[in-house]
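Journal club prep, shared notes

We agreed each person brings one worked example of a sequence with its structure written out as tokens. Mine is NAD-dependent epimerase/dehydratase family protein. I'm keeping it raw so we can talk through how to read the token line rather than staring at a rendered picture. Sequence first:
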Amino acid sequence: MALHVITGAGATGSATALLLAEAGEHVRIVTRSGGGPEHPLVERVAADASDPDALTALVEGARTLYNCAAPAYQDWRTAFPPLAAALLTAAERTGADYVMLGNVYGYGPFDGPLTPDLPMAPTTAKGRVRAAMWEDALAAHRAGRIRVAEVRASDYLGADALSLFTLMAAPAIRAGEVAVVPADPDVPHSWSYTGDVARTLVAVGTSTRPEVWGRAWHVPSVSELPLRGLADRLAAAAGAPPARVASMSDAELAALAAADDLMAEVAEMRYLGDEPLFLDASETVAAFGVRPTGLEVVLAEMARTPVHSPV
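Then the structure, token by token:
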């Protein structure tokens, strides 16, 4: 039985903890509140993961450290760098393998499928934060101080998943109302199921193959439907009226941003929803055999869970 430490107990962190525990591994999940899933092999610890000394003590003896934690969206610029630094420090001090949960922000706008070997080329503040986190960890890996890999996902789907779709579109769709989203609802888009994110994290984090480390891996997408098509499928799964979706204008988004700190952070990332987004995960499938969960399974899960409050 190996020890695995996970920071963050959201949908991905909790799913990762349960996958490891159900495989007989000892899991220590670290959050400020001490929350997380209940399981005999899951130890829930209340601690500040941005404190490098406290985190190092909790990671000591662990095989792998997984970061599934993230500050509030509006606090990324100030809160993510110290969290990332503490995680990197804990991995260096303890010798634990380090698996980062990332996203596509660091790539910046790109025409064509996103492959994990693309260089970081962010054009936004939050993209630069994500890129710096990876580049710092990769530099430590290349210097021989740690062993690191990053698992990158697109917009989340699933029970308790947090994304613009689950927060802004899904509640309206399930209520039979018009879903107004800051995106073009008719362009293809890759969607990531939180359960598949967890399976990819575990596949990477438990690998003994040297070639797995020092690089990024993409999560296989459950669908590349446009947002409108996904909305139609969710409405059918939930037994709701046919979905109605409208694109939010820049002026409407600006008005929301002026009144809400979280929505103020959405504008710079709007390009991700306005242009086609394809996440190429063929290398993940070939290396680990991780295949996406069926979309109908994911939508059925979402349809039977409580509706998130809209942003």
